[in-house]
Amino acid sequence: MLRSNSAHTLFFLIPFLWSSLCFSQEAKSKKSIDPVDAQVASLLNEVKGKSVGLLTNPTGVDNQLNQIADILFHDENSTLTAFFAPEHGLRGDQQAGGGVTDYIDPITGLPVYSVYSIRLAPTDEQLLNIDALIFDIQDVGVRFYTYVWTMTHAMEAAAKNGKEFIVFDRPNPIGCLKVEGAPNTVDYGLIGRLWPGESFGVATRHGMTVGELAGLVNGEWMDPKVSLKVIKIPGYARDQYFEDAKRPWVIPSPNMPTIDTATVYPGMCVFEGTNLSEGRGTTKPFEMVGAPFINGVELAAELNALGLPGVRFRPAYFKPSFDDYSGQFCGGIQAHVMDRETFDPIRTGLMALKTAYNKYPGDVNITNYASKLMGVPDLQNRIKTESVDDIIQGWQANLTAFKQMREKYLLYPVSGKSNGYLHY
């Protein structure tokens, strides 16, 4: 009787166990799909049957560090015909501002056309034999990083020639929630464009992915508009930092080695517009700043006394191997971000600049380039006489307007919740 009951019970359990096993296998299978693989599959489907050009650099990789360029080159259903190289070159071997030339890529045998220094965008002839132009570059989320503006010039060239423009989207490494800094009110070219007739451009820390920014530029400022397709990031949320998105970090430019660099970059880059070293030629660019005339211990103490949220300053001494003060002994500080949630990189950078100037007024030279970087007219003089808080207050109206403008171009939710905004 016991055996009969056991057999009866087992008879009814078998379908349940089988269905649970199948569901478990299906869930495991779904879970194991790499999000970048899924994104690449979407890209390959989008370009099926098309001839394409690719604007990229070494950051254009999947999660196994395979170049998307190689995947496209070997794809049997599409034809990759040319590369377009931004600042720092296709292989990322050029320093900031270095010339980028046309040449033949030795790996694929395809032409590489510069879209930095010798021209800003693909020519009509270079686009003649392609159906779509793809942009795949890791951005760092800051207005004066040149890649996004190279993207906009390429978008305009594609629109002029009736070509599709495809953005292979990537995470914003410093997150997409915070929007900070002055939207530029002057056309600064590759560190911040301003379209004719517009009163402001993009905030210093724009809080967007490149795909979202492409949508904003296309929707608000371009005429004619381009046929835009954004290959979205599966599972991405606005409140994620780069490591949350589980992507490999490939340095997007020679002086952007780590996420720590990107975190301080929106504000500490202001020192590019001064006669202080911003740490180029060291292993900590933008985190360290200094000059031969600076006492690092004293400057760090004064900055720490300000109580700036989320950051501490350490006395630092270094000899840059190139760029400003190459081979010279420099005193200065290193900014250590202790809490990314409370850290305000732009206010921190401006406070550091003002403190350094006040301490060494006869030695610190601030140029108009600092004004261009921060999007603040006459910053080189105003920082000497005005409070940082007053300077920040001066851009709030434009910042509010930019935040409102960007809302309808946001493609990703916060923590997985639907945002209801425009999708491509």
What does this structure look like?
With 424 residues, the protein is of the alpha/beta class. 34% of the residues lie in helices and 13% in strands. It has a seven-stranded mixed sheet, with helices on both faces. A three-stranded antiparallel sheet has the order 8-10-9. Helix 3 links the parallel strand 1 and strand 2. Helix 5 crosses helix 6.
Task: Set out the fold topology.
Layout: H1 2-31, H2 35-46, E1 51-56, H3 68-74, E2 79-85, E3 103-104, E4 111-114, H4 124-127, E5 132-136, H5 147-160, E6 164-168, H6 210-220, E7 227-231, H7 259-268, E8 288-291, H8 296-305, E9 311-318, E10 330-337, H9 345-359, H10 368-374, H11 379-385, H12 388-393, H13 396-406
Parallel strand pairs: 1-2, 1-5, 2-4, 5-6, 6-7
Antiparallel strand pairs: 3-4, 8-10, 9-10
Helix pairs in contact: 5-6, 7-9
Task: Please describe the structure with a list of short key phrases separated by commas or semicolons.
7-stranded mixed sheet; Aspartate Aminotransferase, domain 1
CATH class of the largest domain: Alpha Beta
The secondary-structure class comes to: alpha/beta
Q: Total strand count, please?
A: 10
- Overall residue-averaged pLDDT value: 90
CATH-defined superfamily of the largest domain: Uncharacterised protein PF07075, DUF1343
Helix-strand string: HHEHEEEHEHEHEHEHEEHHHHH
Which regions have little confidence, pLDDT < 50, spanning 5+ residues?
1-30, 417-424
How helix-rich are the residues, as a percent range?
25-40%
Largest sheet, described in full?
A: 7 strands, mixed
In which order are the strands of the major sheet placed?
3-4-2-1-5-6-7
* Helix count from the secondary structure assignment: 13
What name does CATH use for the topology of the largest domain? Rossmann fold
CATH architecture of the largest domain: 3-Layer(aba) Sandwich
What's the number of domains? Answer: 2
